[in-house]
Structures are given as structure tokens and as C-alpha cells.
Queue: 2 jobs
Job 1
Amino acid sequence: MAKDYPSDKLEIIIIDDGSNDRTVANVQELMAGTTILKLIEAPQLTTGFAPKKNALLAGIAASTGEVILTTDADCKPGPEWVSGMVSCFEEGTVAVVGYSPVSGGIAAFDAFVNGVISAGSIGLGKPTTAVGRNFAYRREAFEAIGGFGKTIQGASGDDDLLLQRFATSGGKVAFAVGPATFVPATGAETFGDWLTMKRRHLSAGTRYSPSLVGIFVVLYFFHAGLIASVITSLANQTSWWLPASIWGMKVIADWATLQKGAEILHQKGWFGGWLVAEIVSPFLVVFITPFALVGKVNWKGRKLKR
């Protein structure tokens, strides 16, 4: 992950948050003969803290670098990841969001769409979403906004909510488009796993700004109305041409957006996923979202607050 980055300016911190595999043993073996690799154990969870944010805070506290880069255990950063992400920090840049393609089924297409939304919103000057699998920010900027702030309680949001806090602080946010900065990750193994993950991610939306919540509410009712119009037309209650026209315009708009996003993210093999998504995504949006807004969510066997 740092083949061409000066070793005297680099520290790699592995945070063990209750692992039950060979993580600790493997890291200890790798630590032999090097001083840049550290292993720390996440402290006992503080009341009101979400587990991942608790672990991240421990890692940040143990680090000394000016720029913090985060990734996850199921990721494989390339040898030029560090230098590529760091090179995106210009004068005034407080955070850099990277792309993290995922392998396998619906999770792969979902990660691509999220990457397009992330790059697009940042390009428009309205940073909205990021992924903790590939995220970098200045330590001083993180401290200046009070870290995770009140969002520290939520199971999700160590990425997009933090990004939004950086954006509202007045700092510049960039998106890394170089393939060397991409961080491949392992996708959810089953559709059920993906649903659990998606519900957790969507749950962070309850902590978004009122303006973003308003946009998502409009999108939700657009999809709900689209489904309702199809159902009524099939029941011969309304003409078929209206839902067909609206759905057709949606298909064209989605294709144009994803086509441009695929060029920016160097993404291939997305067309098949897009065809399926155009049919099923309105139903997924309408039926998954309500379940993400109530109750607790699951994260590695732990039931947590939204």
C-alpha cells in the first residue's frame, strides 16, 4: 500500500477490535524487523460510542501523522495507494475521498453507483457520501470540527457524515480518480448480507442535514409514485403511457450518468447490473428505506443505534 512512499513519513496502524481469527498473530509476524507497523487493541467501548468509531478514535490517537488514511480489514490497497491519495491534498484540501470497487453480484454494482454519487456530489461542490474503505483527511481538520461529534453514536456514518462535517467547515474536499488510489474490497456474500449492510448504511440518513433529507424524501416518493403508477396502469385504472414515459426518462438519465461515471472511475462490466437495477431498484428503495429508519441495526453481531 506504500511501495513508493518514504518509510520515515509513514506509520501503519492495525486496530484489533475483538477479532477471533489470526489477525493478531499475522500482524505480529509482519511487525518483526519493521518500525512502521503498529498493532493496537480497541479500548473497551465507551457508552454512547459506536464500535467502529471507537476503534478509529483509538487508531487516530495512536498515530502522529499529518494525514490520516482509513481502510477496512476486507480491503486490498495497492502499492501506490498512500502516495496517490496524499498527492490529492492541495492547499486548502481537508479531505480526499477514494473509490472502492467491490467484488460480487449486487454489492459490486451498488459500490459503483455509490462511487458515482460520491464523485458527482464532490464535483458539484456538495460532498455527500464517502466510504471508510478509502478515505483520507487532515488530522488538524478532524480535530477542528470536533472529530465525529454527535454522530459518534450512530452505527454508520464514520464516512459520509464525517465528510459532510468537513464540507460544512469550509474546507476543500477532493475525489481521487487515479486507478492507483482505488481500494478493492470483498463484497457481501449473500443477498441477505447485502441487505443488512445496506440497512446499516441507510440508517445514517437520519443524521443528514435537513436539505439532504429533503432530497432523499423527494426521491423516495418519486420511486413510490412510479411503482404506484405502474400498478394502476396494469389494473387499467390509468393510461400506460405516463409511467412508461417517466420510467423511460429515468432510464436514459441513469444511463447517461453511469456512463460518465464509468469513464471517470475506469469501471467496466456495469451494463448488465444497470439493466437489472432499472427494474428492481425502485422496489428496493421503497421497501428497504423504511426498515432502515426504525429499530436498531446489526454490525458484526452487535445491535446498535441507528
Job 2
Amino acid sequence: MSAPIELAWFSALCDDDYEQLGVRDPALLSSYEHCAAIVHEADRAGFDSILMPSGYALGIDTVAFTAAIARTTRHITPIVAVRMGELWLPQLARQLATLDQLLGGRMVVNIISSELPGERLASGPRYQRTLDHMLGLRALLDGRTWDVEPPRVRTVRGVCPPLYFGGLSDDARAVAARAADVYLMWPDTLDRVRDVVIDMRTRAATQGRTLRFGYRVHVVVRETESEARAAAEHLVAALDPEVGEAIRAQSLDSTSVGVRAQSMLRDGADADGYAEPHLWTGIGRARSGCGAAIVGDPRQVADKIRQYRSLGIDTFILSGYPHLDECRRFASLVMPLLRDA
């Protein structure tokens, strides 16, 4: 029996919120007030969880912000993004255990493997560091010794929260098979998503483990398909190609295998930017990383999500522009169709 569907939204902590991509609106830049409004709306709307992304030069701090909103949410589970190697591992374990306490146990951790600012590290050593930190973090939060004693502060459940992790390279897949609980994917065609799920299940089985799967994608939903497609085009109508290139280059992972795969998806799309029905790649013209959206009327969007769900994906981390408005639309138009399934 498949796991219940998990619907997550996105809090734009990294200055990633627009009315039109590439056109800065001071009211949509990340701040406590703006990002908290997104979290509280997602909480009221019934989303299960919300991604708290991580950036260096961009936006506001993930852990500090999540701690600030911890006692003002009711049921939503923050997916807290942390970068391996950024903090001394025992300090990171103590920080996350404290955050879990503030949230009453409503927390999962999104592991990010990236170079640190100014660092040049090949894929193999970088992912080895990530694996070592993931195994160490799990040990310490489970209450086991890992070079040092575990923190006195423990998580509410006394064990490590689930670890979400993604990456398309062979090194990344090996780490996920060994140490992740949920393997996250960026948008792709149904056939290629199926291939990745099959590969990751096989890799995990060789480690005596099983994985759950998550899918990170944008959404553009309107009452009719024509309105949705028009809204998608509006998002990129004012985009200067040079501005889009600059935005994509800001991310530390802008040259990763996953980012290159998003570029290939965009290059293979039709003249309107669709890689397959209802999967629109235009967002990737102004965004590194997750670069495609499910576009359509409520039934079409729900059906597309069900198609991915049939491949074994049960966690969907969604976003849309502006994030507060699209959160409300998705919750009212699409969520009831998926909750009733």
C-alpha cells in the first residue's frame, strides 16, 4: 500500500518571489513578515509541510527563521534545508535538536551537498563529506556517539528526523541510497522520472534499505487551461535574457548535474516551452535548480500529480508565483481533488 500523499509548499527565503520573473518587487523580497505570511497561509490551507530553503548571499537564514515561526504554526512540518560542512557536526546536531523541540517534533531535514563559498571541491570528495555528515547527524540525533557524545538536547521523538536528499549524479545517488529517507527529484518527463525511481530502488535494495520519493515542482493553476497558460506566459513576459542568466548563475549548484538536466529539459521542449503535456519549462529561464511547472486547470494539475504518484512518488514540494497567491489557488482548486483521491 502506498504512503499517504504529502503536499508541501515553499517559503521564499532566498529572494525567490516575483509577480513576473526577473522583475524585482521590494514587497516580495524575503523578510520575516513576507515569508511568515507564506508559512501561515500554507498552514491554514492544510499543507502537510513547507520547504525552508537555504542560500548564502540570498535572502534570510533558514534555521533562524524556522525557529522564529515555530510557535506560531499549528500543524505544518518545516522541511529545514541545511548544508553539509557549513557547521561543525555536533553543533549542527544540537541546533537541529533544539529546533525540533521548538516545533514539537514537526520537523524533517533537507540535506544539501554543495561547495562552500570560495571552495573548489570535486564531486567525489564533496559527496563523501555529505555522506559522512549524514551518517554522523543520524547517529548523534539517535543518541549514539559519533566521535563525540550526542547532544544532551534530544529531538522530541528521541531519533533523527527524516532526511530528505536529492541529486542526479552517480555520487549523489550512491549517497541517497546509503543514507537518505526520501529521495528528492526536480521536474522531468514521466519516462525519465520512472527510470530514476527504478534505479534508486535498486541502489537502495543493494544497501538493504528502502526509499520514499519526493518531487519538487512549480505549479500554475487557473480555472481554465487557457487562463493557466496565459498566466505562465505572463510570468516570463518581462524577462530580460541577461537578467535570467544572472539569476541562474547566483546559485552555488548552478553547474551541477541536476541543473544541467533542467537545462536539457528546457532545450528539448516545444516552441511554447512544454516538455510534455502540462510540464512547462519557462520558469527555468530565470531560476537555477527546479525549473519547470505543472500548468493547467485544477483537474489537469491534479491528474498530472497523480501520474507522478503512480510512479511511486508520495511527497510533492510545490511552489508558484507569487508564492502567497499561488498557495491559495492550489489549496482551493487542486488540494480537494487530491485529498479525496
